[in-house]
Design brief:
alpha+beta; 327 residues; 7 helices; 9 strands; four-stranded antiparallel sheet
């Protein structure tokens, strides 16, 4: 029994010695740049970078220094940005596959763009027809109110409300037209990006590729954006003066948000409607000028002529002083 206990103690001692002989080393560098090797890391260097070596002096692993809170935050930010970058790459690869699968040639892209713009133009034309009807209705309501006032009778509240409602309907419809025009601009920009990417993916030389059709008519020359109520008020005064100067029909309604001249009656009548369309921020707004001609063949031809289009092109310079209006 005593012999067995002695043998067990001897085995334990041998195990401890063997474990001690297999222990590795640590390599670390102090503030002076001097390299040190030891069987343990000094307490003051535990959080600093050091290297673990096995008994043969081969590096096992590198223990990095403990990060400061600022370094840890920076590392998290880098990880977040790398994740976003991977997501963007994946989205780009997906978009490329869809682009190549959907379109076979550059003409397909151009036709798709023109079809989308044509569809938006149809919706704009429908909206303009609605405005013409709303304008006629508004004129009828104003005539009723004027007749009552001439007869010495007060305008009933329901008639005043109907007039205000008609004005809001016209202004809201114009806001929709502005959105549609912006949509057309977005369609063109997206088509240009897709066409450029399509050429890159197909290895098509840009010099030999057909240039997509572009409209020669300027985009949104009849809209001016103002950043705050004070600037909007200043520009609104100039805009209403512009309408009085260029419209051939009399003023039908005037307020701080809409300025309407009477509907066109003759083939060469020019009716102008000015709207002040507020943005979502509650401060900025867009001043939008629309020109209407008589809804007839000759009236439409006159509306496309140089005189009427010149009025549209002059709107922005008249308000902002710009010589060359930006689209």
């Amino acid at each position: 029994m005593y012999r067995s206990i002695a043998l067990l103690i001897a085995l334990l001692l041998l195990s401890v010695l063997a474990s001690s002989s297999d222990a590795g080393l640590y390599r670390w560098v102090d503030e002076e740049g001097e390299v040190h090797y030891s069987d343990s890391v000094p307490p003051e260097r535990v959080k600093s970078e050091h290297t673990e070596l096995n008994k043969a002096g081969v590096r096992v692993k590198i223990v990095p220094h403990a990060k400061t809170p600022e370094e840890a935050q920076k590392e998290l930010e880098l990880q977040r940005m790398r994740a976003q970058q991977r997501q963007l790459l994946e989205e780009q690869h997906t978009a490329d596959r869809v682009l190549l699968k959907t379109f076979r040639t550059e003409d397909d892209l151009t036709m798709a763009r023109d079809g989308k713009i044509a569809a938006v133009d149809v919706m704009i034309e429908v909206a303009r027809g609605n405005i013409s009807r709303q304008q006629t209705r508004h004129a009828e309501l104003l005539a009723k109110a004027a007749n009552l006032e001439r007869a010495g009778n007060p305008v009933p509240p329901h008639l005043s409300d109907a007039i205000a409602k008609a004005e809001r309907a016209i202004r809201d419809t114009y806001a929709g037209i502005v959105d549609r025009e912006e949509q057309k601009r977005d369609i063109r920009a997206r088509s240009d990006r897709d066409l450029k990417r399509f050429r890159e993916l197909r290895n098509l030389p840009a010099s030999n590729a057909p240039v997509p059709k572009r409209e020669t008519r300027p985009i949104l020359h009849n809209i001016v954006t103002c950043p705050n109520p004070e600037e909007c008020d200043r520009l609104w005064k100039k805009a209403t003066d512009f309408v009085r100067q260029h419209s051939t029909t009399s003023v039908q309604a005037s307020s701080s948000v809409i300025f309407i001249t009477a509907p066109p009656m003759k083939e060469q009548d020019i009716s102008l409607i000015l709207s002040r369309i507020s943005h979502n921020d509650g401060q900025s707004a867009s001043l939008f000028l629309d020109l209407q001609c008589k809804r007839s063949v000759r009236g439409k031809e006159f509306c496309r002529g140089p005189k009427t289009q010149g009025i549209i092109k002059e709107f922005r310079p008249a308000l902002t002083g710009e010589d060359n209006p930006r689209p």
